[in-house]
Amino acid sequence: MNRPLLPIIATILIIGLGLGYYLVERRAEPPARPTTVASAPMPASTAAPAARAAIEHPVPGAASGGSGAASSLPALDASDGPLRAALAGLVGADALKRYLAPEDLIRRIVVTVDNLPRSKLPTDRLPVATPPGGFIANGGGGHATLDPRNYARYTPLVDVLSTIDMRALAKVYFRFYPLFQSAYQDLGYPHGYFNDRLIAVIDQLLATPQPSAPIELVQPHVQYHFADPVLEGLSAGQKILIRMGPQNAMVVKAKLAALRAALTTAPIAATP
After folding, report:
1. Residues 213-223: tens digit of each pLDDT
2. Domain range for residue 107?
């Protein structure tokens, strides 16, 4: 049985990834859902400070959360309709209906972004639908490889992502930023700044290595894992990029780099 992990993405993630994903596994009943959305410790390099540190990537002007910006927005619990309407102008209503979660979008995006650098993602808080089909491995559990046919499951959603104007998406994000910031603080980071967290997550995803095929797998129990301990030690978001295949990952990285450029004054290029 399939078990969803992520936008992609991550994200993913409408802001940052916008992807669906699956854990590398064979047919198995899914485990119980986590009781919290951020129970795993944050990586030391991205741990939330006890007091607010200097903001590295401030959002522009009124979007930073001033009273004028906040007063023009709906309440967080009433933000799904306005946000969906804004996103529909970028990707179309049909794509939103097909892939986007029906409710609680901003909180889902914030939770997903925050957990992409961790080892696991909260399966019940994803902002996008997971791709159809089951995972395919070549060979047995003792000597198996990742079947390239898995990559096609991600292609329709990546095709949608490839059409999005990242500068236009950034404008939507900036417009609703006070709500993203509020949701991030509610998640347990009263002194945190969500845009800094988002940029850090994008940077980690852009640094994801692209292993050469075939990608070897092991099956110590029911689930498949990457045989290479370096790959297996990557974050949940980085593993998603590897599982979707090199061509899809290249498209996603290019869009992430474009989004980063639109969100900051110091853009960087995606790694090959």
Report:
1. 899 999 887 78
2. 55-134+151-211+236-263
